[in-house]
Amino acid sequence: MGTAAGITRFTLDNGLRVVVAEDRSAPVVAVTVNYDIGLRTEREGRSGFAHLFEHIMFRGSANVPDGDFSRLTSRYGGGGNASTGLDQTNYTTVLPTNALELGLFVESDRMGWPTLSEEAHRGECEVVKEETRLRFLNKPKTEPIGGWWLDMRALAFDGYPNAHDGTGSFEEIEASSAAETREFFESYYTPANAVLSIVGDPGDVDVKALVEKWFGVIPGRPTSPIPAVSEPPLSEERRKVLIDKLTPSPMLAVGWRTPDPVADMASHAAAIVLAEVLVAKEDGLLVRRLVSKEQLATSVAGFVEFFGLQFLARDPLLLSVTVHHDGSDADALLSAIDEEVAQFVAAPDECAVERAKTTVLTRWLQNIDEVGMRSIFVAGFELIWGRAELLDEIADVYRSVTTDDVVRVARDYLTPTSRAVLDIRGSK
Amino acid sequence: MTAPVRSVPEVPPLPPLREPDDARRELSNGLDVWAARRGGAALSEVRLVIPLGGLGADASSDATARLTAELLFSEAAGPAAAEAGSRLAALGFSARASAGAGTFSVGLSGLDDNLAEALAIVADVLGSTSFDADQVAQRAGRIAAQLELEGADPGRIAHDRLRRLLFGGHAYGRTLSDPSAVAATESPAADAFARTHLVPSRSHLVVVSPRDATEVLSEAESSMKVWGRSGEATPVPDPPDTAPDTFGHMLVLDRPDSVQTAFWFASRTSGRGAPDHAALTIAVLVLQKRVYDNIRRRNAWSYAAGSQLIDLPKASYCMLGCPVRTEVTMPAYAELLYEMNRMIASPISVEELEEAVGALQGRTAQRLGSRSGLAEELCRLAEAGSTIRVLADETAALSSVTADEVMETSRRWLAPSRTAFVAVGKAETLQPLLGIIGPVRAEPV
After folding, report:
1. Closest chain B residue by Cα to residue A326
2. Which H or E run includes A299?
3. What is the pTM of this model?
4. Distance (Å, rounded) from C-alpha A326 to C-alpha A188?
5. Within an 8 Å CB–CB cutoff, is residue A357 touching chain B?
6. Residue A183 CB contacts under 8 Å (≥ 6 apart), including other chains
7. Which helix (H) or strand (E) holds A86?
8. Each residue of A234-255: pLDDT tens digit?
């Protein structure tokens, strides 16, 4: 199955790597820039800065007035967004094919000469605080992508890059300055620290010439070293009880470290399959045990970070399982989880593994069906692995996962002594 | 280095809308099947929509429809359903049923090679559900717990209440199911619901696949013809007009631990297909941009400020609002009123008009660019009794709208005097503040 037939790549003199993945099945094209900088790169005392910076990058550049990034592209039906992940920040615009050059102009102006004004910095400090309130503080922590995830990372890791709150403490966001945004830009937002991807139908234009025209004039400069983020796994269980006034019913969240995706992609894929084996809607081992059989839980979910972008983050990552329940004892839930994992290791259900493989494979193909998301993966794969072709190869990576691989990951990683446990209770 | 001066590149005209190849036929069991081709990856997207007539207006019938949807692909729904989930997963498909706004829907997506088999499984489940009393009793409580979590989200709370204000006792007047009604639903009710309402006649099936549409239509026919329940699905009735006493009042839903106020204005508008709908879509988009510029960019009061036009098969409505920190609720409210009044006081600029027309025309092309986007769009058209030609007509209609027409339609549908208002937040703080502006009623969430 092919989605990215005909990947081509070239590198500009300033160091910007460019990947073009044509797909002419619909007259739309995505322009994405992924920068090799994320939440884990922000320095101590400046939590939330990478995300704040992403916001400020929408506030104008030398030839695009404040407010015009979206206006320019949306008037042709384009839509853009950005997101800051653990290790990467992406800026994506999806446009009708006829507006490709406009997308290249906007993204190149942002890369080369962002305004980074004092006014934009102040304003976006307030906006990101509102975003944090909207996404996390004004909702139950126990929502699927809720505040529990931030608490889990703080509990499961020790090193600042992994453990700190990437949404940012309000005090640290307010304490940051416009001068720091300039410094951050100069250090990390360099052409050589980014990949530009163009995915979809580019029309009948010379893409390389257009890229040269708009991005080639951006001067190259050195990139500051990215801080190391690795740290050893936990040697004993960590547990924390949290009270959340907005949570209607309690939830237990369990996080385990997973194999290094860069050093061992096959085991990383096996961890993703394992998560599905555990939490598949009707047939997951934990669903059957905790929900159907013993009725200790009302629902079970789980995933390997980073949300839908599992292959776009480096080590260390977590496999998390969340268990919504109605007041069950945490130890009883954990014992049942341990027993199910042990039983799977001793006598794995091959059919369940095959079903899980098919499910994650299908989910993957669906994930990259839309050109915007596909362009993020193309740029991200090139950034981390130097292989945008992984877009097509990941399907085979999933197909190649064996039951033994899944068992090995379950046995070696999902151990009681290496987990972090959040016991979240409501105020009632 | 000094930044170079560069001009915005010229954008060539948008090519005419490329309609997908499609084929459509009503099967012998009355099911309307619409297949469309979308190239690229070997994936298919399927949407099945079953109109439920007036069902879902009251808590009990809504709960029955919701519970049936949640359990449709589980062992609680009988022997065929028990195996359905794992059989579909083995074929590389995932299925999800949902109920709301007067319809029962099934979404199915997966590997196109196995489409026929996956459709046959769904048809088998739809035609043979038989709910197990013990299973339903066990699972109803769990689903209710999930609904409680869903109902704790302030944005959803606000939307649900606005829908009730706009559509009253109609099926459109509810977006959140009542957890206690779901917990109390028993298997005979779910059986009766499935028997009476999960019928093919006058239901719509949309299939988007990379293969030839005629071939896919034949395949879908072979798979779905086994779904033979008798009876006819009933279209959703027209909702009554909004009660005038809804207008001009501010309703505060008290959520004492809130750290933000989620507040929204909403008004009923003309529907898709109405003569002024093109002007209305432009008006709502311009209003959205103005609100974003004002509330987010200039004042930095909110992350998610804007407006949205929501088209249901039998009615449309506009929502306008934002979540803001509690302290700025009043100025944000005043600014939104100002922006609504601007829309009705004077015509939008020529530039705003051109930008909005270009954006809406381009978005249609973009929506059809993904498999799921195309499936959703065809589904909406099927429910409305329309054909794919409507998309080109709508796109063309945008070009002839004038700024005066945008002002006229804004006066007709978006005037503050005909909006309902709901704020979810700390009533203790909000009531005295908003009370300065007008009458406020506070209720618990």
Report:
1. B145
2. strand A297-304
3. 0.94
4. 47
5. no
6. none
7. none
8. 999 999 999 999 999 999 999 9
